[in-house]
Design goal:
By secondary structure, the chain is α+β, with helices and mostly antiparallel strands. It has helices at about 5-10, 35-40, 45-50, 80-85, 120, 150, and strands spanning about 55-60, 65, 100-105, 160.
């Protein structure tokens, strides 16, 4: 496991996280985006936040839950959907995270000649191939949006944007 305090200190020397990454990312298993936005803020106890094994579900100011990938990513454990009292999240809905991930080649260690494969090592669907030894790219058609690559990148070169 990566020591997040060391990673953040190291990363702060190279780059900072983009403000675009602050946009809320809708939880997987959401039946409908409008229903999610309308009903989730009315939830009193936010059981999805407590149920998340990875502790990546956070409440926005308006009380809508969203994903925050700074410490970990989604393992699709299904617990958020299992505890949803409002039936906004359902195991019958697609297992999709509405975010697009990419690698900033200017700040990526591998793209700058340093041997690093942290992002590819944690990528279960193998959506981050290396072209040669030093050029990783995220394959959009294979990426499941779990965010694990984002949480382990030592220099914050992995970026994401919400597709909500």
């Amino acid at each position: 496991m990566v020591d997040h305090h060391k990673r953040e200190a190291f990363a702060s020397l190279f780059t900072s996280r983009s403000k675009a990454q602050k946009l809320p990312i809708r939880l997987p298993y959401a039946l409908d985006a409008k229903r999610f936005s309308a009903l989730c803020p009315s939830c009193v106890d936010a059981p999805c936040v407590q149920a998340c094994e990875e502790r990546i579900i956070v409440l926005e100011e308006d009380k809508t839950p969203s994903l925050l990938f700074t410490e970990s990513g989604c393992t699709f454990c299904e617990k958020c959907a299992e505890v949803c009292d409002l039936d906004v999240l359902s195991l019958e809905a697609p297992r999709v995270i509405h975010a697009r991930f990419s690698i900033d080649t200017k700040s990526c260690l591998a793209w700058n000649g340093v041997v690093c494969c942290c992002c590819a090592d944690v990528c279960t669907p193998k959506a981050i191939p290396f072209f040669g030894m030093f050029r990783p790219l995220v394959e959009m058609q294979t990426c499941i949006g779990c965010g694990l690559c984002y949480s382990v990148c030592p220099v914050n070169a992995v970026q994401y944007v919400a597709l909500n």
